[in-house]
Amino acid sequence: MDAQGRGRDEGIDPADQWVLNPDTGDYELRLTPSSGRSSASAGTSEARTPTPRRRPKPEAAPAGDRASVPGQRGGRRAAGGGRGGRDEGRKAGSRAAAPATGRRKAKPGKSRKKKALVWTGGVLAFLLVGTGTAGYLVYQHFNGNITAVSTDGAGTGGFSKDRAINVLVIGTDKRTGEGNEGYGDAGSVGHADTNILFHVSKDRTNATALSIPRDLITDIPNCPTKLEDGSEKDIPATTGDRFNTSLGQSDRTPSCTMRTVTELTGLKVDHFMVADFNAVKSLTTAVGGVEVCLAKDINDKDSHLKLSKGEHTLQGEQALAFLRTRHSVGFGSDLSRIEIQQQFLSSLMRKLKSNDTLTSPTKMWTLAEAATKALTVDDNIADINQLRKLGMELASVDPKNITFTTVPVLDNPDDKATVILDKSKAPQVFSMMREDVSFTAVEKQEKAAAKAKNDAKLKGAMADAADVRVDVYNGGAPPGSAQSALDWLQNEEGVLKSTNKANAPENVKKTQLVYAPNQADQARRLADMMGLSASALKPTTTDAGAMDPMVLTLGPDFTEAGSPLSAPQKAPDDIQRVEADKAVCAK
Q1: Where are the beta strands (DSSP E) in 154-206?
Q2: What's the mean pLDDT when you consider all of the chain?
Q3: What CA–CA distance (Å, rounded) separates 62 from 197?
């Protein structure tokens, strides 16, 4: 029990219970008294709280055990604690807690863990918990805050260190919570109103935050769903619906939004996180406000935002109003609102990565507390340790290599209030994300691409188109794709020795070309024609006969004949994007 718990030193900041371990560079929660007593063993490992890795889950704590948790006054009991504890605290003091004097000035070492940062703004602020070894009581405290919902088998089952990571962040317009009654539509079950698919590359050098417009007309797949009462429901697929109906409507849960994103982009989602209006208000307040810049005055009667031209720091209700504003910015559409949301999140990300946040245990605690209470996550990360691990995986991405962009869309000719997919640009964006191509220049990727191109030139010559022999199968591409590909190969490219073999024995995840070693020159020619990536080429181990064809199986990534299947190495020049390291003024 610390000095606060004994009724003394009421002026102590809760963050001062967190001290720096110079051996690891981590902040650790000290549960021993901070009365200034000392001994020869002060600062040794005995005076520190064991980490969850070293300490097994304890049995029920004795009634006299009690410890303070940052943010809680001594009068509140920690999980498992009793009313006593004074003697226990004094015993701990005999092991010599380090003096409190100067503790505020301690600076973290250059530990990699210190850099476990928040990403996509405050929405994931609680990942910062990973920077401190909090001990079992803190572990219980944060775990008790987390609300989780099942993925219903819609995701990958969880992120992995050895592959790219995809996290879907959903902002719902459900009006529950104090202070939200004035926004109207009070009885709504909520929609997938704001949607960002955050993709982090396998090598962790770059990330893309893809906004999906709520008014995009798309197909919503069949959604097996576990409902709140524990029952299960198979929600049937629909076609031609707004994307935002993938949540809330017809009892759909976030797992259905996950499935819809995968159907749309071809990217399998690892995790989801859902934020409501109160999450926005509490997280922006916890961080101390977010800086925004306006290119003109704003007076939006719908969002209740009134701000003058120039720079402002927004939090709470004002921050929510800014994120809801659309009629007073850009063209007054939801697409304009998406742009200012991206600018806001970029600013929030820069704020969270600043030294003022990273080196302040108080801010770190406040952010983690607010976020774990405000967000709903999927059941695979409903544990603070899993969230910490996810944060560590995302920590190395430099803001200059994080790009916010929006699914390319066109006005819907049948309904001006909605949009449809721009089929000339959207597939390129999805392909770049699937293939981990950065939307910004990443030196490591540029060198790898140049080397791959050079290696390809050295591997041998290409056969003439007339000598290419191939059978074409449909293995998950749109109906009629095998015939359209065959027509294009024969009429446009001169590959006359080609045959439509209809449906493949089984579907493939992406288009692939199987060829024998003695058909490598033919494979190179066909790959060059179709824009196949190296990963699409599948050589066998034995040579083929003179009349044997290669086997081309078209997967879901095949959209139309003549459209390259490999990801472009550069984003289309005219797509909307915001780079996270640059401040932009809302227009």
Answers
A1: 165-172, 192-200
A2: 76
A3: 46
